[in-house]
Each structure stands twice: as C-alpha cells, then as structure tokens.
Amino acid sequence: MPVLFSFTLPILSNEQMTPLDYEVMGHAFALHSERGRLCDETVYQHDLAGRLSTAGMSAEIEVAIILSFRGLDITLKIDLLVEGKVVYELKTCECLTRRHEAQLLEYLFLTNSSRGKLINFRPHSVEARFVNSSRTTTERQQFTYDTSQYHGDSGLVDCVRELVSDWGTGLNPSRYRKAILHFAGDAPTSDCVLPMTGNGRSLGNQRFHLLDEHTALAVTTYSKTNTANRIEFEKVLTISPLRRMHWVNVTHGHLKLSTINNDRKI
After folding, report:
1. What integer best gives the mean pLDDT of the chain?
2. I want to staple 51 with a disulfide (CB 3.0 to 4.6 A). Which of 27, 45, 100, 126 is the partner?
C-alpha cells in the first residue's frame, strides 16, 4: 500500500465536529492561560493530550502516516488525533500562514479526511484555524501529464508518473523530491552545495538537488508552470556550473516535466 496509517477518519459535518472542537478548544485556552505562550510546541502537545485524556477523551500524539514507494518509507507524524476523528496540528509561531495550512491539508489528503484544525499557542491569545479538504484520494490520483518540454531519460518520467499515481497530488514537494532522487538519481550525493559565478566573479555557493553531476532536479507545486517561473529557474541555472535542470511540477489534476538547459554549459 502506498500510504499506511493505523486509523480511519470519518467524514464529519460541521454539526458533528462542533461539540468535539468546543471541548478541545476549552482545554487549549485553559492550557494557554496556565502555561503562558513561551513553551515549546512539545510541551503544549503533551499537556493538551493529558488534559483531554483526563477529561475522558481519546488523545493520541505523534500518530504516524507512512508514505511508501518501491520500498522507500517516509514517515510523517500528526501532532494530535482526538477521539480517532479529528486531526489537530499545534504551532508555536508568530502567526499561522498558508504553509501551516498546507501541512495540515497534506495530512487530510493522505488520510482521506475532510477537516482538521490548527492551534497556535505563541500569540497573546490562542490563534486557531479550521482547514477543510474536498478532494478524495481517488480524485488526487487522477491527473493528466505533459512531457512536451522534457528532454531526458524516460526512467525519470516513469518514476514520477508511478509516484504521483501512488501518492496522489497535493503533497509537499519535498515528499516527491526525496523519492525521485532516491530512485531516479545517480549523483554521489543528491544534496550538494555548488559554487556560483557571474561576470567573472565568485558569487558564493548555492544548494542544489542533483540527479547526476550535471543535472539538477526542481520539484514544485505551482498552480501554473508559466514563463515567469521558468525564467527564474533559468537565472539561477545560468550562474551555476550545471548543464541542465529537470523541473517537475505537481498540481491538482496535472503533472508536467520540463527541461531547462544552461546555455553557457551546453
């Protein structure tokens, strides 16, 4: 199985989730009032789980979701699963962002769940935000693909198509990148810092993910693979010692592979 977890989340309506969330948030506010706003995330995680358990509610922490592909396992961990029904992600940051929403949405996608919640303990008042998903696993595994601008080995195409078919779209690009590099790359080290030069001057170093010693890999989840995005990659590639970059973009319902050549090195 490409995605493994030991629980099944029900599809909850607003009416079903409201009383459960009301009790969770009551304990979250009490915790914030008593412990303050400066503790580490793990402190709030264990304390909130303990308070919920004392109140007679099931509360599991660090609940594993395993992404599996061709024998490679990537383990993700949910902060808090309450009553075996609702995923909560806990944060200690200045404010919640779209990046935090995307993390929770990824967990909802992988567990085929419809709703979860972010709780941020760092502000002076507890910040909380619902995150909802309307896409099923089956829908995320259906996509079109475009390789018209790709010029490389067919093995990369096969690997990416199989990977996205297994895991579906909508995940953090780092998940796809790790698997692609593991199975489609042949560089001694896939994570490499390379010297950058421009106008005859050293410009310091930049980190790249390498498929081989001459080829970088970029994996994104841009809503559109437009010319502006491609130009930005070209600018970076031009001052690098690399010959090319293979760019994989995974968005909902579509997969695109492109090759960007470094004209200075070809």
Report:
1. 94
2. 27
